[in-house]
Amino acid sequence: MQTFRIFIASSSELKDDREKFELFIGRQNNLLSRRGIRLEVVLWEFFPDSISSTRLQDEYNEAIRKSDFVVCLFFTKVGMYTAEEFNIAYEMFKAQGKPRIWTYFKTGDVAIDSINQADIKSLDEFKNRLKELGHFFTQYTSAADLISQYGDQLDMILPQYGGDSDHKTSASGDSVHEKTGPEHIENTFNQLLTSRLITAISQYSKKAAGFLAANPSWAENEDLVKTAKRIIISEYVGVIGSQIRKLMAIGALAFSETKMVRYLENSQATAKRGLQLICYSLISALWDHQVVKKVEFSSSQKDVLIKFFRNAAEEDVLGFAELLKHLLEIYSENKLEFLISESMELLPKLQEGSEFITACSQLNDLSTLLKGSTFQLEDCQAAEKNVTIVLESLSFLAQYRMISINEIDFNQQRNDQEGLYLHNYTLLIGERLANDNSQSNVRRESSPVISHAVIIFKDNYRKNINLDPFIIDFNGLKLDGGSKICFYSHANTFDDQNLNYNFIEDDNKQVICKSANPKPNVSNLNALNRWLSIKANRIDMNFDKVYSLFYEAKKTLTGLEDEVEEDSF
Predict the structure, then answer these.
(1) CATH code assigned at 112
(2) How large is the angle between the packed helices 377-393 and 143-157, nearest 10 degrees?
(3) In the chain, what's the furthest Cα-to-Cα distance?
(4) Are residues 342 and 407 in the same domain?
(5) How many domains in the chain?
(6) Strands 485-491 vs 440-445: parallel, antiparallel or unpaired
(7) What phi and psi values does residue 495 have, to the nearest 5 degrees?
(8) Percentage helix, strand, coil, to 5, in the chain?
């Protein structure tokens, strides 16, 4: 029998939660015994706040050393002894790779007279320290919620441990669990992501709904799991589906440190791209609204728009969440119409302390974790959970589509009085969004649309949001085949004012600057035709259009002109 010790650290105010947690572990043991696994909860109920001042330190260290898992619970304060328990567990983890540590903070109404400033300060200081360590904490609302969340964690981590060969017996006869090597870790990546996303999009996707109705036990069949993943990738709107595709592909790789790095990076990038897509759609539509009828922005709303257009570096996940909140408030307060109307449902989720913002915050903190190379498998599991929360909230995007309009041709045959416009476009599908000439399509229409633009739409592609210049098809602008979708990153406001974009497939940088190739005056048709006959000139014209559109949008939404410094002598 393989035994895992779970040490529970908490203050006396959470006694009821600890007792219910212990009962839960007892129920789990009835199931786990068939797999040769037993969980043992270690409690120090006879000491206030877990440890008394008279307790020998070596006895305390021995209890932590023999624990495989440590669960720290907090509510209105961080007791001195509970903090000490975490510190010793963390030092042991750094030294020998165990115990695994979880920290849970309970949320809920608290009587004001039951807490003091010292308690609040202790909570804030401890949370800040956890962020500095790159350690993720989780919020829970009740004992039942705690049990549900930790149950999910056990489901993910216990399969990573093999049989009794991974254990040895100490001199005292106690079972001590050795650190499991990467070669023994199962690929459990994307199980949670797949299960929750296929369910989330089923209310918007007939394909997903039909799949679930026909296959209620799909999760037990490996082939059907693969089908579910393909549906998720293809049904989420193009650029988001592309990001999910990368997560799915990384999750299928053999376990390695490189795999963990890539999974963490792409979890963060997927959340950011989803937020960017909604933000850029809102900004593009707001620009159109302002051209027709101006609305007045509050000072904070105007500040956040100015920050967006003047940023000298790309915003992080939390920055885009904050931008999204302000944009949705503008639409709500001014009763502005917006094609992606479901996005208004995000506004309550963007309040501080919400599950959505907590997920964004923890995904944001992955940068620190990656920089310090202090990540573990649990961090990938936490990242998967957090990106799932974000994508679930964006599941309405499964009913939208994106296309890149390339060239618009006019075709008129002899004796044809009207003729037709040929719309050459690329349908942006998550499962094949990289360079692929086979994606080109032609649609015959009686009127043209704007060329060289990425648009998002729901049912009728003529009722769309033009995402130019915030999301562009770099290959389309270069008059090359296939698509290369790039997201606006930042402007070099304090330098050369060039525009910076990132290619969504590999985050490769693309810079757009104003060319020194002026187009001839349209009044001189012969000169203009000669100029347009040269492909390089048409490419310059396309990129100049992106550059000028960005600064037009900036002026319309912020009132700021191009910020060029004049020489003064």
Answers:
(1) 3.40.50.10140
(2) 120
(3) 102
(4) no
(5) 3
(6) unpaired
(7) -135, -110
(8) 55, 15, 30
Q: How many Å apart are CA 43 and CA 557, to the nearest integer?
A: 59
Give the type of residue at 551: Y
22 belongs to a structural domain: yes
With vertex at residue 158, the alpha carbon angle to CA 155 and CA 161, rounded to the nearest 5 degrees, is: 155
Q: Please tell me the distance from the alpha carbon of residue 397 to that of residue 387, in angstroms, as a whole number.
A: 15
Whether the Cβ atoms of residue 309 and residue 286 lie closer than 8 Å to each other: no
Phi, psi of 42 (to 5 degrees): -105, 115
Taking the C-alpha atoms of residue 459 and residue 466, their distance in angstroms, rounded to an integer, is: 15
pLDDT digit of tens for each residue in the chain (569 aa)? 788 889 888 877 888 888 888 888 887 776 677 677 888 887 755 344 444 444 444 566 677 778 889 888 888 888 777 777 888 888 888 888 788 888 998 887 665 555 677 778 888 888 888 888 877 788 888 887 788 788 778 877 777 664 433 333 233 233 333 334 444 455 679 999 999 999 999 999 999 999 999 999 999 999 999 999 999 999 998 889 999 999 999 998 888 778 888 999 999 999 999 999 999 999 999 999 999 888 899 999 999 999 999 998 999 999 999 999 999 999 999 999 999 999 999 999 999 999 999 999 999 999 998 888 778 888 999 999 999 999 999 999 999 998 887 765 556 666 666 666 555 667 677 655 544 444 567 666 656 566 678 889 998 878 889 999 999 989 888 887 778 889 999 998 777 889 999 988 878 888 998 888 888 887 888 888 888 888 899 899 889 999 999 999 999 999 887 655 555 54
Out of 398, 428, 456, pick the residue that ends a domain. Answer: 398
Let me know the angle formed at the C-alpha of 361 by 359 and 362, rounded to the nearest 5 degrees: 65
Q: Compute the radius of gyration of the chain from its Cα atoms.
A: 28
Q: β-strand 401-411 against 175-177: which pairing, if any? A: unpaired
Q: Can you read off the two tokens belonging to residue 335?
A: 């009763």
Which residues neighbour 409 within 8 Å (Cβ) at sequence distance 6 or greater? 421, 422, 424
Are residues 426 and 527 located together in one domain of the fold? Answer: yes
Question: What CA–CA distance (Å, rounded) separates 208 from 391?
Answer: 15
- DSSP letters for 196-208: HHHHHHTTT-HHH
pTM over 0.70: no
Domain membership flag for residue 33: yes
* Number of Cβ atoms within 10 Å of the Cβ of 420: 16
Evaluate whether residue 264 is within a structural domain. Answer: yes
